[in-house]
Amino acid sequence: MFFIKQQQSASCTQLLITHQTRMYIYSGNCATPFPSTIAPGASGKALFSKYADAATGCVGLLTYDLLNKDTNQTAEKIAVMFSAPFNFNFYSNLYAVGVFDKSKLCDYDLYYQMYYGNDIRLKRQHADGSSLSYVGGNITIKATMSDSYQPVIKVQVSQNKK
């Protein structure tokens, strides 16, 4: 289960997590998709699941465009990668968050980059319940992922003060 929340504050009214939600599912499926828009102070959730009777996990990523409400233009894109494996003997839950150019596609290449790559535009860690934080030029993304067979990821997006 994913939860994404955009912090409401006086400095967080210019960005809107908007309708350009994209998902790339490497393995598993999306049982309940995210809402198309998450306004400041609001939250959204989605449910991704493993296939029944199959020895596969649920692995993929999702992206949201960030709309600058002053210019009504897409400013950049946030991405969340997740991996909840079938077998904990060989793998563990892994997740990553990052901010990318608005033209970045939500596809296998971005998934691979977030799962394996070393990139200053993202932060990645194994799930253990502790917080992960990525600070970009305009926004900060904080996330946690539980270390369980049915993990929960919580993501919070806030605008940086200028």
UniProtKB/TrEMBL annotation:
GO biological process, one term: cytolysis in another organism
Identification of the protein by name: Uncharacterized protein
Annotated coiled-coil segments of the chain: none
Subcellular location, record wording: Nematocyst; Target cell membrane
GO CC list: nematocyst; other organism cell membrane; pore complex
Molecular function (Gene Ontology), one example: channel activity
Keyword Flavoprotein: no
Superkingdom of origin: Eukaryota
Keyword list, A-Z: Membrane, Nematocyst, Target cell membrane, Target membrane
InterPro entries in the cross-refs: Actinoporin_PFT, Anemon_actinoporin-like, Cytolysin/lectin
